[in-house]
Amino acid sequence: MLCFILQQSPLLFSQNHRSDSPTEVRPLSIDEAWSMAVVSSRKINLSHLESEVSKEEIRESSYERFPEISLNGNYEYATNIPVYEDGLLKPPVQHEVIHLLYKVSTDFYLNIYNGNKLNLQIDKKKILADIAQVQKELTTSEIKLQTAVYYFNLQANYVFKDLMIRDIANQEKQLAEIKELYKHGVILKSDVLRSELKLSNQKMLLVKIENDIAIANQKLNILIGLPDHEKVDPYEELTPEMFVLQPYEAYLEITKAHSYDYHISEKMVELKKIELERIQANVKPKIGLYGEFYLANPQIFLYPYSPSNYTLGIFGVKASLPLSEFFINKPKERAAKLNLEKEELEHHHTDDRIREKVYEAYLRFKESLIKIDVAKADIDQAEENARIVHHNYLNQTALITDLLDADVQSLQSRFNFVTAKVTAQIQYYQLQNVLGTL
């Protein structure tokens, strides 16, 4: 309901005419709109999938801790070996060999130490998953802010329509008075024409407002997943005066704890640190356990050979040190350190930009609250001015232009009051979006 606006002037009235429409109107609160937007938004769904992919990649990297195990087998046929005892031009002597050979084996390798690369890889995946989660929350906040903008703009246009309908009714009543004065020869024909022209312009403006309602309604419907032409009634009250304006320093503390951009920037610095550690690990030794067990025929592992099945198991420790990396890795490490330093500077820059956004949003919200008080006072002044000019016009001490201007100012003051309310409400949610608490 928008009854709080109606209390400011007798020319403001309730929105009950909406229910007279033959088309069913769907009541909708801002919380309901947010819930529907979160479910319907493709951007949020995409962010959710990216977050889920990041979580699966963590599991994928964690599974690399398990040993590598493989099962192998081969079956072969060997021909006799021709031995050219008298030279290549003489017939060879065929040396008999064991013709059928087969081997079934299993082997494994267990990484014990590889410069801590696997742990670093898992840490990197975890940070990427955290970034994906924060990005999802950021996207949700932006969608909720956009929903609030469409929601309250639609609500404002409904109020504008109410104000315009009532103003047109008053203008028609005033036009009847002016025509009556013209019949008695008190005023000129031009006064009647100007009044009729103003009334026509008001009716045209009403058509524009109705179109604005349809456009705003469709934008909101698309965002929250409703059919284009389904009408919604944003009945949530405009109550920006209820929001407590905290000190700027308090908002800065909230930002450090909740700001999406700040957290993403922090995570990016951590990623660069891990990348540096990964490059430094290139010069560290690699140690692992390995083993093999197989069943084979013939026995050609030891002499004398035998056409018999045999089994053999081999176990051991394998270690290697990449000597060439001590030279090749130096420019890689220097580049990684520079990238880390660059990211740290970028993080400080992000902090500065966030403080700028917070300060601007804070001042704009504070300014919008002041505008509400100013607009509220303007309504009383404009209505009193319109009353006086209307009285003077009937007493032939004011011109028709003065009367029409006073009517316009009175209507505009009420429009400005609604606009100030909507602006303050949106500025509040804009501030919450910057803080990371929307």
* Counted beta strands: 8
Shape: elongated
Low-pLDDT runs of 5+ residues are: 1-22
User: What is the fourth-level CATH superfamily?
Assistant: Outer membrane efflux proteins (OEP)
Overall SS class: alpha+beta
Radius of gyration: 40 Å
* Widest sheet, order of strands: 2-5-7-8
Secondary structure tally, helices = 9
CATH class: Mainly Alpha
Features of the shown structure:
Outer membrane efflux proteins (OEP); elongated; disordered N terminus; alpha+beta; 14% strand; 63% helix; two-stranded parallel ribbon
Can you walk me through this structure?
- The chain is of the alpha+beta class and 438 residues long.
- The chain is 63% helix and 14% strand.
- It has a single domain, classed as Outer membrane efflux proteins (OEP).
- The strands form three sheets. It has a four-stranded antiparallel sheet with strand order 2-5-7-8, with no helix packed on it. Strands 1-6 form a two-stranded parallel sheet.
- Helix 2 (30-40) crosses helix 4 (117-183) and helix 4 (117-183) runs antiparallel to helix 7.
- The longest helix is centred in the C-terminal third of the chain and has 70 residues, at 325-394.
- It is elongated, with a radius of gyration of 40 Å.
- The two termini are 23 Å apart.
- Mean pLDDT is 85; it is low at 1-22.
Concise overview:
It is built from nine helices and eight strands. The chain has helices at residues 3-6, 30-40, 42-62, 117-183, 189-224, 248-258, 260-280, 325-394, 400-435, and strands at 25-28, 68-77, 81-83, 93-95, 100-114, 231-234, 286-297, 310-320.
